[in-house]
Amino acid sequence: MLTVAQLAPLKDRDPYLYETLVKIVASVNATSQRAGVDPNTPAPAPSPIASVSVQASNGWFDISIADPSDARPGLFYFAESDTTPAFGAPRVYFMGASRNLYVQLGNQTLYWRAYSQYIGSLPSAPVSFGAPPIAVAGGGISGPAPQPSSGSGVFPNGVPRGGNGFGIHPGSRIARQTVL
User: Fold this and answer.
1) pLDDT confidence of residue 149
2) Which CATH number fits domain 51-170: 2.60.40.10, 1.10.600.10, 3.20.20.70, 3.40.30.10?
3) Predicted pLDDT of residue 70
4) Domain segments of the chain as ranges
5) Nearest-CA neighbor of 128 among 75, 73, 65, 72?
6) Reported pTM
7) Residues in contact with 160: Cβ distance below 8 Å, sequence separation at least 6, in sequence order
8) What pLDDT, in 10s, does the model give residues 65-83?
């Protein structure tokens, strides 16, 4: 956020310059907030998605996110799958602005969750398919065993982790937590 401490003395001396600079500062701050590029603090997380539904057949997984929130432009969605309901090493699927993902993963049994995030914001709280999470069997022919997950985004200490979308601002509360 841009602040100019020297604006107050200008208010009486040159009100037109003061008004112009106040508008410039407000425009810069609004643009940085909208773009998610404030270098001081991350934007707040968007509202959690309402639900995620998953169905599978013949190795194809069909994921659908319901999100009735009043979001501003630039909201992106992520789905994650894991072989355990704890999501200890989730595989991350970037969905972009789409709320649907149709992906061939073969004959695996997977747990799913999803969340949203703006660039520069914290991710919303993940919502799992089922509470507690329900496993979904892909069926069909088995493909190769998946490689270990590399997570998504950027995380302090370079430790890959799921549930972070684009990454976490280094100064945020989440970034200061210990990575398990």
Assistant:
1) 65
2) 2.60.40.10
3) 82
4) 1-40, 51-170
5) 65
6) 0.69
7) 149, 150, 151, 152
8) 999 888 778 899 999 999 9
